[in-house]
């Protein structure tokens, strides 16, 4: 499948690139996408939540009051969960939320997500570009030239470019990543996907393995 290459001003350069059918034109596997997105979101959880339970509370071990004759319920410890300052009943404990997913499934999920974007015609290829200095205005003009300034966009570069990254950092609806940082969640979460030529080469070489 051939796609026109655009320049930084959104105009066609007269060149076209071939999108690999093995990466951008497969039958999307929605379950693979679901599993990969689920794993990504699970890995965002720190799992460091912790509350002190009865055995971990600092406090006196003295029996609060005598067993009988008070007219109230029995109470043996100030650390009891029923008292203020006592331990928490079945409180949260540290937990590892990581999930396992084999490489072939992750590769299939990424190819499926890219194929969906290609099928929806939400994928644009631009020539490699850079800015002389970090300016949000320049990046906004770039998005406007592609007609995606009001959409949630993901721009994928072949290699890290500090000026481009800093120019996009203030924009809530746009994100810049490198080809090696690309994952299924970021692809699916974006309305428009913009690939530079060098990023396209890297993505295809990684997913054809």
UniProtKB/TrEMBL annotation:
Coiled coil: none
GO biological process: translation
Domain of life: Bacteria
Pfam family, one: Ribosomal_L4
InterPro entries cross-referenced by the UniProt entry: Ribosomal_uL4, Ribosomal_uL4-like, Ribosomal_uL4_dom_sf
Gene Ontology MF terms: rRNA binding; structural constituent of ribosome
Keyword Glycoprotein appears in the UniProt entry: no
Protein task: Forms part of the polypeptide exit tunnel. One of the primary rRNA binding proteins, this protein initially binds near the 5'-end of the 23S rRNA. It is important during the early stages of 50S assembly. It makes multiple contacts with different domains of the 23S rRNA in the assembled 50S subunit and ribosome.
Stored NCBIfam families: rplD_bact
Protein name per Swiss-Prot or TrEMBL: Large ribosomal subunit protein uL4
Organism annotation: Allomuricauda ruestringensis (strain DSM 13258 / CIP 107369 / LMG 19739 / B1) (Muricauda ruestringensis)
Name of the encoding gene: rplD
